[in-house]
Design brief:
It contains 7 helices and 7 strands. With 191 residues, it is α+β, with helices and mostly antiparallel strands. It has a 5-stranded antiparallel β-sheet. Strands 2-3 form a two-stranded parallel ribbon. The protein is globular and about 45 Å long. Mean pLDDT is 77; it is low at 93-107.
Length: 191
């Protein structure tokens, strides 16, 4: 994961320097543990490495990929806790015990952690009761409650984004996520 993030940093610095300059400095492990203390689960090693690399971006127009903003850890924790509280109040809460079963009529699940954000949707990862290495990545469409398991790990998600960057796929006029379908498929099962 470290080599992958270093490659991503180099690409961003060389090709999107305005965005690279906006990335907040990474956090220490102690800072991560303190900020995530309110969560009722643990973040995976991959998510911790991501936040040690950089702590997201401020609320700016530049996006991490396509239209997703990389949330600073404090903001990600707050967003996660707000969504959990809202859906618990609405009775749309189901404890899934690390199972990837995603019923269509439940909008927020017990282990979901917001990591990338767009106005109508979120990219979430799964936390766990115990320490884990990889972090499954799901795309949650808040408007219609549809959830898709995108990647079996954060590493797969970052690998797909990096390939889209390095091959200039993201620079297509009118780029949409569907344009990256073949790349996504390549990295879907990467642990």
């Amino acid at each position: 994961m470290k080599d992958l993030l270093e490659r991503l940093e180099m690409w961003l610095t060389n090709n999107r320097p305005n965005y690279a300059d906006q990335l907040l400095p990474g956090l220490s492990l102690e800072e991560i543990l303190e900020i995530t203390n309110p969560l009722p689960f643990q973040l995976s090693d991959q998510v911790i490495k991501l936040y040690r690399w950089h702590n997201g971006t401020p609320d700016i127009y530049e996006y991490f990929f396509s239209f997703y903003r990389f949330l600073p850890l404090q903001e990600a924790v707050e967003d996660t806790m707000q969504n959990r509280a809202y859906f618990q109040e609405q009775g749309a809460y189901q404890h899934i015990d690390r199972d990837l079963y995603l019923p269509g009529n439940y909008d927020w699940q017990y282990y979901w952690f917001s990591i990338f954000y767009e106005v109508k949707e979120r990219v979430v990862t799964l936390g766990s009761d115990t320490s884990s290495i990889s972090a499954p990545i799901m795309n949650y469409f808040g408007e219609n409650g549809r959830t898709t398991l995108w990647f079996k790990s954060l590493k797969g998600f970052i690998s797909a984004i990096l390939e889209c960057y390095e091959t200039d796929l993201y620079r297509l006029e009118e780029f949409g996520i569907d344009d990256a379908e073949e790349v996504w498929a390549k990295y879907h099962d990467l642990e």
